[in-house]
Amino acid sequence: MGVCTEDIAVCEQVLKAALADEALLMNDGFRAMRVLMSQLVDKLRQGGKPARKPKSGRTSLPSVVSEDEKQRTSYSVCEVKPAQFSRLVYANPVCILSSCQGSERNLMTVSWLTAVDNNGHLVLSLNKRRHSAGNILSSRAFVLNVPTAQLAQTVLEVGGCSGATTDKIERFSAPLGGFCLPGWKPLGAWPPSDEDSEAGKPVFAVSGCVAHLVVHVLADLDEISSHHLLVCKVIRAFVRSTYWDGKVFSPRLDIDVLTPPYMSFFGSQTFGYVVPSYCEQGGE
Predict the structure, then answer these.
(1) What pLDDT digit, counting tens, does each position of 184-237 carry?
(2) Which position has the higher pLDDT, 280 or 157?
(3) Can the peptide bond before residue 191 be classed as cis, meaning omega within 30 degrees of 0?
(4) Rounded distance, CA 82 to CA 91, Å?
């Protein structure tokens, strides 16, 4: 389908008007939508071609899992190399942490996590009063699931209730797209078999998220009375190919798909959005 200059101008006018509307700017849903609108305008300016395509070498993809292990949609699943595990948390994404203890499973929202090297070691700050703390300290394993802005309200709701009084697995299964094994492999009976466990530890992931990081707890630095400071290590990581170009974890601008951004947390139930900004080479 051809796109003329007038069509692009109309899209730009709509975007400009929307950005000038204070009420829309304060709407959580629209904050993510305007990022997608900006991407669309960029693509239209290029006649449908990718906008601001990264320099050579940025678009190569790592090997992907087999067809049997692909997610239900058309994109593929990339397994990230260990030397690149930390890149998935560089932007400090808001995550849904999935944990288990025996047959009990739970979810919580986290954002206080920091990479400490390039080999997948990270530190997670965890309030000692959180119901998931018992699961995590007992099993010494969990999964960090990275949601996009489309799940912003659900992320707040997951963090707004306690697993002590709410069955979060039942309540949030539908809005989160169900549950799976890391890498979007089908989840059968719970707990999973040893074959489906990660390094002998049963874990599960959120199907509706764009990245799964399987994490083991190495140590608990009990130096703050209110929080556990957990020294952890990512042991496996999977990302949808629409968010991984082989080097950078972000919505990809070099493909013909509009991808919603993932989130960072500003506090007071307010999210920021993570999108790439490629610098043009040359020019003034």
Answers:
(1) 999 887 777 767 677 678 899 999 999 999 999 999 987 788 898 999 999 999
(2) 157
(3) yes
(4) 18
Specify whether the CB–CB gap between 187 and 173 falls below 8 A: no
Q: Give pLDDT, residue 11.
A: 60
- Domain for residue 258, yes or no? no
Are residues 114 and 40 part of one domain?
A: no
Helix (H, G, I), strand (E, B) or coil at 146: strand
Taking CA atoms, 167 is separated from 6, 156, 158, 171, in Å, by 52, 16, 11, 6
pLDDT digits (tens, 9 = 90+) for 55-64: 433 332 233 3
**pLDDT for the residue numbered 272:** 87
| Chain center to CA of 125 | 18
Task: Report the first-to-last Cα separation within the chain, whole angstroms.
Answer: 34
Neighbours of 249 (CB within 10 A): 25
* Cα angle, residue 270 at apex, residues 267 and 247 outer, rounded to 5°: 90
- Alpha-helix residue ranges (DSSP H) falling in the chain: 5-20, 22-25, 28-45, 132-139, 152-159, 168-172
* Token representation of residue 222: 């009990």
Residue 227 resides in a domain: yes
Residue 62 located in a structural domain? no
Report the C-alpha gap between 2 and 158 in whole angstroms. 43
Look over the chain and give the mean of its residue pLDDT values, rounded to a whole number.
Answer: 78
